[in-house]
Design goal:
384 residues; globular; Arc Repressor Mutant, subunit A
Length: 384
């Protein structure tokens, strides 16, 4: 009987991705912390009973723990988190492991599917101590719009634009309110991950544009230690925020749209540009389209109406959703290339988790549909 061996790192990956410490997992499984450490190092192998307990506690199929690791397992740039600096290292480590798992899902699909190739310009900008100014970032944002032939008007569906140009996007349950989104280059493929608790399309699009800024401007940062200092962290976050604003609201066209300080006017602008009112007010300030008193008036109106946390249209403009993986799975299943059970076994995650990573309809991979055992009568076919 051919029994598959447990891959030690998979135990660590499963534990970290669920946010457990060694001690916490040990208590839940019923072994010592030292045993968990040795399992992860590969110095001893867990018994069948213990790996079964881990599977139940961590909610990963046993096939996950026996799955070979990909040859290239390290990110080729830093992981950029759109998060508060108070986000715990445990939360960020969990997110990094989720990145690796999504990449394996993408690699699995790529053995069958031709995804759009990466189509990004090379800005040849390294992450130095020099901070980019508004004018320079304006030029980068405009260059990207020109490169993608987007014109200077509102972008109807940013998620689709990013996917058409080779950027892989996943929606994740990060179980952490302090992390909104993050991005990374993996083996020359750019990935953007966002939290699934976003309620506003405008905020979601700004997050995506912010991460796009990181992927373009900060691709030459290879180690997370580069982000350790507050000065460096603030610098790259400011640059990514500026890039998002410049990309979504081009100076030439957006400037012509601003002709009033009425909050109702900005609600109409939000409907057109699909950018939050708060972000548009900041953009007006950066471009000096309005005076300091006018900006203050708008901010006071935002506070008075309690718009800083939830704005008008937030629950009306539909959320953009990634579709590349859904289309890929539909192609494979509809053409009988693989079965649902084969997908789940090959990827090594539960069906519902794959559905979450790839933004599939709930239940799409849960089970194979039963084969047809009935057919229409011939006379019914002829009458149609």
């Amino acid at each position: 009987m051919n029994v598959k061996k447990i891959v030690p790192y998979r135990i660590k990956q499963a534990r970290v991705s669920r946010g457990f410490s060694m001690g916490e997992l040990a208590d839940l499984v019923g072994v010592t912390r030292s045993a968990i450490s040795q399992y992860e190092l590969g110095t001893i192998s867990p018994s069948g009973f213990v790996i079964g307990q881990m599977s139940n506690v961590l909610n990963y199929p046993i096939s996950f723990f026996t799955k070979k690791l990909p040859e290239m397992s390290n990110a080729s740039s830093a992981v950029y988190f759109r998060s508060r600096r108070t986000s715990t290292q445990k939360a960020k480590s969990a997110a990094r492991e989720k990145i690796s798992i999504f990449r394996e899902i993408n690699d699995y699909l790529s053995t069958y599917i031709d995804f759009p190739p990466v189509n990004l310009p090379n800005f040849e900008y390294s992450n130095s101590c020099y901070e980019l100014g508004l004018g320079e970032i304006e030029s980068y944002a405009q260059a990207l719009r020109d490169y993608w032939n987007l014109g200077n008007g509102p972008i109807d569906n940013l998620t689709t634009v990013l996917q058409k140009n080779g950027i892989m996007i996943s929606v994740m349950n990060l179980n952490n309110k302090k992390i909104d989104a993050f991005s990374v280059w993996y083996n020359s493929v750019p990935y953007i991950f966002r939290s699934n608790d976003k309620y506003s399309d405008a905020r979601l699009r700004f997050d995506l544009s912010h991460e796009l800024g990181h992927l373009l401007l900060h691709a030459n940062t290879f180690m997370d230690e580069d982000l350790a200092t507050k000065v460096t962290y603030d610098k790259i976050e400011n640059e990514a925020d500026l890039f998002a604003a410049c990309f979504l609201l081009p100076k030439e066209t957006f400037s012509r749209d601003v002709y009033s300080t009425s909050i109702n006017h900005f609600i109409q602008l939000k409907k057109k540009w699909k950018v939050s009112i708060g972000a548009m007010i900041c953009r007006c300030s950066d471009l000096e389209l309005l005076s300091e008193n006018q900006i203050k008036y708008l901010k006071d109106q935002m506070s008075y109406n309690k718009y800083w946390h939830r704005e008008p249209l937030d629950d009306i403009i539909p959320l953009e959703t990634p579709t590349a993986h859904r289309q890929a799975f539909e192609l494979l299943l509809d053409n009988n290339i693989v079965t649902k059970s084969e997908v789940v076994d090959s990827i090594g995650c539960t069906a519902d988790e794959i559905e979450e990573y790839s933004f599939l309809p709930q239940g799409m991979l849960s089970h194979d549909s039963p084969a047809n055992v009935i057919r229409l009568k011939d006379r019914v076919k002829k009458s149609n």
